[in-house]
Amino acid sequence: MAVARDINREQSASVSRRRFGARGSLARREAIWGFALISPWVIGLLIFWVGPLLAAFYYSFTEFPILSAPTWIGLENYRQIFTTDPEFLISLGNTAYYVLIRVPLHLGIALGLAMLLNRATRGIGIFRTLIYLPSMVPVVALAVAWRVLLDPRTGYVNYVAEIFNLPRINYLTSAAWIKPVIIGISLWQVGIAMIVFIAGLASVPDHLYEAAKIDGANAWQRFCHVTIPMLTPVMLYNVVIDIIASFQVFAYAFIFSDGGPRNASLFYVLYIYKQAFEFFRMGYASALAMILFLIILVFTVILMRSSDRWVHYERI
Q1: Do 254 and 47 form a contact (C-beta atoms < 8 A)?
Q2: CA 13, CA 117: separation in Å to the nearest integer?
Q3: Angle between helices 76-83 and 282-310 (to 10 degrees)
Q4: With contact defined as beta carbons under 8 Å apart, do 227 and 146 qualify?
Q5: Do 94 and 180 contact (CB within 8 A), yes or no?
Q6: Which of 297, 274, 299, 301 shows the shortest CA–CA distance to 85?
Q7: Can you tell me the mean pLDDT for 21-28?
Q8: What is the rounded CA–CA span in Å between residue 25 and residue 255?
Q9: What is the residue extent of each domain of the chain?
């Protein structure tokens, strides 16, 4: 009997070893195939994102006139930025103005459109598509089209204004108008945020609205106490993405006025471009880029850390 038990034990151990060996071999093959399939993305990340980021970090400590080799100068670029460069503060102020005005407007309009289009009615897909289409138009094409429309002499906007006896306005050459115009035009591309909000609205459980109705909540109360709390994860995503995108505004200012008039549309990324490719100060531009990276990082970290206090995740 003891011999039989030993034989059975050895056979069981042998079967277990074969099973675990087969599973281990399968897991290794799956891991190899997994790494092989994601390798193009990893290579692209290293070459086009991590590599340039590390290079910019190094160049920010150098004097690099592009046409000659970089020379190490330590923190000199950063010292000049914070002590002797008034246009740094101008560009940062213009960008802050754009972010503070544009982000709430953009997300508010996107949420409002999502609420209007979040219904199962005939033809609703057509309206969603029409609102989403401007987001698919390249920013440069949109900027060129609006530059023609807003031209102070031949633009159709002023032509229509004259029909209604309204004054002709030089939108692109007025320091008072250029930033509001750029903000207003950027709101055309509201479709992506709207689609994200529609997806969030579709995920709100119907039983929450039914319970609120039973408790006597009206439409506004249901919106404030059901819709908004359940949309906070989507709002967090949209706010982070919108802030990152808004800090990088460039094309409209570059095409409309190249930073003018009187630096009124000199946004931060446009200033980086000018330092790098007009004044050939690649090291200085890299230092500016590193500062922008840190600004965006700080805002993102603050939003993510504060999300525990205002973002609601439904527990299933």
Answers
A1: no
A2: 63
A3: 70
A4: no
A5: no
A6: 274
A7: 71
A8: 58
A9: 86-310
Q: Which pair of structure tokens corresponds to residue 136?
A: 């698919």
**d(C-alpha 189, C-alpha 307), whole Å:** 26
d(CA 269, CA 271): 5
* Alpha-carbon gap, residue 230 to 232, rounded angstroms: 6
State the pTM of this model. Answer: 0.85
- Residue 102's contacts (CB-CB under 8 Å, 6 or more residues apart) are 183, 186, 187, 242, 246
pLDDT value at residue 12:
57
Q: What gap in Å lies between CA 15 and CA 114, rounded to an integer?
A: 59
Rounded Cα gap, residues 95 and 115, in angstroms? 30
**What's the full length of the chain, in residues?**
316
- The residues with which 71 forms a beta bridge, in sequence order, are 63
CA 116 to chain centre: 24
H or E stretch at 63: strand 62-63
d(CA 69, CA 58) in angstroms, rounded, equals: 13
CA 53 to chain centre: 18
Q: What is the DSSP letter of 10?
A: H
Residue 17: per-residue pLDDT: 53
Residues of the chain with pLDDT > 90, as a percent, come to 47
Residue 216 has which token pair? 């006597």
- The pair of structure tokens assigned to 253 is 């200012």
Q: Round to whole Å and give the CA distance between 152 and 181.
A: 13
- How is domain 86-310 classified at the CATH fold level? MetI-like fold (1.10.3720)
At 207, the pLDDT band (50, 70, 90 cuts) reads: confident
Instruction: Detail the DSSP E strand segments found in 143-291.
Output: none
Q: Which residues contact 119 (CB under 8 A, 6 or more apart)?
A: none
Burial class (CB in 10 A: 0-12, 13-18, 19+), 156: exposed
